[in-house]
Amino acid sequence: MKSFLISVLGDDKSGLVDGLSKIIVANNGDWIESNMSSFEGKFAGILKVNVPSSNAAKLKKELTSSTLGLQIACEETKPVDELNNVMSYNIELIGQNHVGIINKLSHVLADELEANVEELKTEIIDASMSGEQLFKAQINLHLPNSLDENLIRDKLEQIADEMMVEIYSYES
């Protein structure tokens, strides 16, 4: 059995997921996990597929040469060893939207806390009372087990104060 991580991007239209799933099933593939969205007329997604080794090359060829009108990248994945020396951590951020929020936050996370971002979801929402635009982010991370909880909180509070946003964090 082989596993593939597949990314797709193109103009949004009906039948894209159906077209992808037909190719996968035709190769005895198993659609394991996915995250797909439509943004401003574009369709983007990422999915994990398991397929018998004997069908792997054919699946990859059929996906990348499909007539679905999508840019498709298909990469074989390797099993990941269990993450023994890391803790899962979640951050929720909300504040007035301005340029550079993710840049500043990701710099602190990577350089000062050695974090690995596992998942990042962002959106702009309207504040309920004022109607101003707020930036909202949900971030799932892996942090080294050796980090002190107080250091994590101090760094996140510091960046929240600098950017004038609220950051809620918790170990998962």
UniProtKB/TrEMBL annotation:
Coiled coil: 103-130
GO CC terms, sorted: cytoplasm
GO biological process, one term: regulation of DNA-templated transcription
Chief localization: cytoplasm
Keywords per UniProt: Coiled coil, Cytoplasm, Repressor, Transcription
Record's subcellular location: Cytoplasm
InterPro entries xref list: ACT-like_dom_sf, GcvR, UPF0237/GcvR_regulator
PANTHER family, alphabetized: UPF0237 PROTEIN MJ1558 (PTHR34875)
Protein's recorded name: Glycine cleavage system transcriptional repressor
Organism of derivation: Candidatus Pseudothioglobus singularis PS1
